[in-house]
Every structure is written in structure tokens, then in C-alpha cells.
Amino acid sequence: MAHLAIESVSKLFGTTFAVNDFSLEVGDGELVCLLGPSGSGKSTLLRMIGGFERPSGGTIRIDARDVTNLPPERRPTGMVFQSHALWTHMDVFNNIAFGLKLRRLPKSEIRARVENALDMVGLADYGRRMTTQLSGGQQQRVALARSLVLEPKILLLDEPFASLDQHLRERLREEVRDIQQRLGITTLFVTHGQDEALALADRIVVMRDGRTEQIAPPSTIYRQPQTAFVAGFIGSMNFVQSRTRNGVCDHPLFPLAVPVDDGPVTLATRPEALTIRPSDRADAARVHRIVDFGTHKMVDVDLADGSRLKAMVAPDDRIEAGMKVEPSFTSFFVFRDNTLVHQGAPARTSAELGRLLPV
Ligand code: ADP
């Protein structure tokens, strides 16, 4: 078990910050996902923690010890890469045993530890196979075992399952979570897949342009996004541009009491917070398309102003394409300049709204 502290770490490539004044503490046994679009600095940050890249500034500590300038082999970290680079001229056993042999451990101990690692990743009978005879998922398991066998204090995983199909990816990430919890190993997991982060993490760090947008547990990231970027990156979100005047949004469909200064705002609401019901109004919205996912239907609704919203409805909902509908919603977020300025539920009655609308 180990505690990791990243203090104001930056990495410059030329004149571009890949990581910019980044700080994070990861507790004993915690699994933190670094989530963000391609190019947001996730890999660079992980490589600096593993010692494969030297920071331009800042400090990295593991259990209070400054490891910022130590080479990888002198850090208590183990890294699993997306391209696992297994040795093709060695069998599985020797791939995993390699690091232990470098440490000159007794043969009997090497055997015991490799067998234990193989067992942990579900490959107990595969020791004598050549790595070229393994499937992609099995190769990734060997790569994981190769790291685990060295008993690192901190496990670093850089999109380890990105090249695998979805079912296998889901299975392997569950296995990783099981192993990680069983060993209580402090773990950082880089991914650009929100599902992966939501399924795995104790906490998620959403990154953008080398900086942190938000650090929080998955449910908080989903329910209380602090920026419009996080709101749009995690899950599905409807955005509507509007303005506030005298504490009310002036969007014709969504006149809402919003206690912020006059000016432009972005309204956001999740598809599951949006309900639609048939309407006869001339300016009603119209159902454009319905996709049936089995567990729910996703409905694209075109508003009179040309914008499109997504609403999630029950699988047995009788909604049809072309129908005129009136959307309403149960909760919403308001952002200004990317920052959350208000979160709430709309006023319930038209009388309430009437009182709110400026005359
Ligand atoms: P992510 O893992 O989120 O996709 P990276 O950490 O790989 O992001 O990259 C962050 C930024 O740093 C990108 O703009 C990338 O082009 C740049 N970058 C990464 N590695 C290098 C390098 N060795 N030389 C120059 N630029 C790099």
C-alpha cells in the first residue's frame, strides 16, 4: 500500500505544456482514473509518475519520498502499457519471471511468485505457452502479471485494454478491479472511455489541456459536473445557449429562474431528466428519430429554433417519429464561461413561471 502525491507537476514539450501545474493525492489502496480526450496529458502524467518522462517542474512523492528524478527501476511503481511489448522469443513464464531474475531472487521463489501471478490473472495453465500463441486479451493479462509479480506499491495502467473488443474490455477491467481491491494496491488508470472510468474508479480526474477540470467520485462527476466540459464529456448532455435577464433565462422553451447576473449562459440537462409529452401547439417540438436500446429509447427532438435535444424514455413508450411534442425537464445545470453557476429544478407551475418572467 502506498500514498502518492503529485505537487504542481508540469511537462513542457517545446513551448507546449502537455501537463500544466497538476496536483493530485492518491490514497492508500485507492484507484483513480485519469480521464480526458486524446492529447489532454494523461499518458505524459502517468509516464512521469513511472519515471519514463522527467517533469519540467514540480515534485512527485511516494510515501513522502521524493522520486521525481529517479529512474523507473528505482521506483516502487509498475506500469502496464497499451502496447504490452511481450518478448516473443520467451514463453509466458519467462516473460513474467524476467524482472525477478534481474533481481536475482532464488529460483524457488521466482517459481512461486510467477505461478501466483499467473493464477491471479486467470492463466494458471499457460506458463509454457509462447506469447505469440495467445489472444490479445491473454497477452494483456500476461502484461499485467509481469507488473504484479514485482509487487509494486503503485500500479500504473495506460489504456491497457484499448485495443480489445468491448466485451473483453469489460471483463478485464472487472478482473483488474478485483485484483486491485484484493491486493489493496494504489492504482492510476488512464482511459479516454467514460464507461471505463465510471465502472472502475474510486475517484475520477477529468483532464483537459494538461490541467484538471474536476476531481471527484464517479457519481459526483456525473451529478454535479463543475464545468460545461465535464458535463459534456461524461454521459450524454443536452446544451442550450441562452441569456439571463433579471434572474430569468429568456429561452422560449425553458424560462427558468436562475439567480445569476445578466449575461449569456449555457443551459444543460441530461436526456433522462427530459420528459416529452404529445402537444398540439403550433410551435411544438417534433420527434426526429427514435433509437431503441432495449433498456430504454433515445429520442431526438427538434425544437422550433432548429436545435436538437435528446430525451430518454421507457422502452414501452408509444412515442413515434414525426410526433409533435412538448419537452420539459426535472433538473438542469447552468454554466457561464465553462463554470457551473447554478444547478436546480425548474419552477413547477406556469403561475410560478409567470411571476418569474419579467414584464
Ligand atoms: P493523452 O495521453 O491524454 O492522449 P499525451 O500525454 O499523450 O495525452 O499528450 C499530451 C500532449 O503532449 C499532446 O499535445 C501531445 O502531442 C504532446 N506530447 C506527448 N508526448 C510528446 C513528445 N514526446 N514530444 C512532443 N510532444 C508530446
Automatic annotation (TrEMBL):
GO terms for biological process: quaternary ammonium group transport. GO terms for molecular function: ATP binding. The keyword Phosphoprotein does not apply. Residues 4-234 form the ABC transporter domain. Signal peptide: none annotated. PROSITE patterns: ABC_TRANSPORTER_1, ABC_TRANSPORTER_2. The keyword Transport applies. Keywords: ATP-binding, Nucleotide-binding, Plasmid, Transport. It holds the Pfam family ABC_tran. InterPro entries: AAA+_ATPase, ABC_SmlMolc_Importer, ABC_transporter-like_ATP-bd, ABC_transporter-like_CS, Mo/tungstate-bd_C_term_dom, P-loop_NTPase, Transp-assoc_OB_typ2. Coiled coil: none annotated. PANTHER family: SPERMIDINE/PUTRESCINE IMPORT ATP-BINDING PROTEIN POTA, SPERMIDINE_PUTRESCINE IMPORT ATP-BINDING PROTEIN POTA. Belongs to the ABC transporter superfamily. This is ABC transporter related.
